[in-house]
């Protein structure tokens, strides 16, 4: 292990132990840190750069290095889908109490700021193949960005796709002003007579694009998680597809698999 990596480990552990709290300034690079770790200034700066890339510290030009305020963690489990289905047929008053984002973050509706934007697009080869429709079929693309009121960036960027001719059976589904929708997508589909039987999720990771890094405030060295969610109805047809881009430094994916007993 290189010396700067050992120093980064030491600083990280001191931060985790509470020696420096979120928002507090770290000792100056010189002379404090160079003397404490018996290292050169470039080595100290390499160590701090590692922590900055991890989102542990923020370097403020001309002021020094500060322990970064942690962003609200999103814990996304595969059990959320049954939870949402159980709520889909509940009265509106009950559905309005909470939603999937609150479920994943532990926040309340009043803690959140919602942004929803809808547009019509033509199905490309990828989406047309999933929905089983001709290329060029009109789809409704719904883009969502939800953030914690005390933060500037969203938890993720989500794009949901519905076949427009199917969705228009309930005109409210075409109106972004109706968001956030009490009960989420499963209740929306319920209003047009669709029940989901299974949801397939595929997760990959890659470095963020420049746009994604800006939208999600992603630091250098942090990957994005790409989740494609495919929803099937009780007849095996794909009725909704979502592509969700999530920052790897604030997202925890939890998969629970129940096993049948022997």
List the helices and strands and how they pair.
Blueprint: H1 3-16, H2 29-37, H3 41-54, E1 57-60, E2 64-67, E3 74-77, H4 80-87, H5 92-95, H6 100-105, E4 112-122, H7 125-131, E5 138-148, E6 157-163, H8 164-167, H9 184-190, E7 196-206, H10 210-216, E8 224-233, E9 238-247, E10 251-254
Parallel strand pairs: 3-10
Antiparallel strand pairs: 1-2, 4-5, 5-6, 6-9, 7-8, 8-9
What does this structure look like?
The relative contact order is 0.13. Strand 8 (about 225-235) and strand 9 (about 240-245) form a beta hairpin. By secondary structure, this protein is of the alpha+beta class. Helix 1 crosses helix 3 (about 40-55). The protein has helices at about 5-15, 30-35, 40-55, 80-85, 90-95, 100-105, 125-130, 165, 185-190, 210-215; strands at about 55-60, 65, 75, 110-120, 140-150, 155-165, 195-205, 225-235, 240-245, 250-255.
Considering the chains and any ligands shown, give keywords for the structure.
single chain, 262 residues, alpha+beta, Arc Repressor Mutant, subunit A, Chorismate lyase, 10 strands, elongated
Brief rundown of the structure:
The chain has helices at 3-16, 29-37, 41-54, 80-87, 92-95, 100-105, 125-131, 164-167, 184-190, 210-216, and strands at residues 57-60, 64-67, 74-77, 112-122, 138-148, 157-163, 196-206, 224-233, 238-247, 251-254.
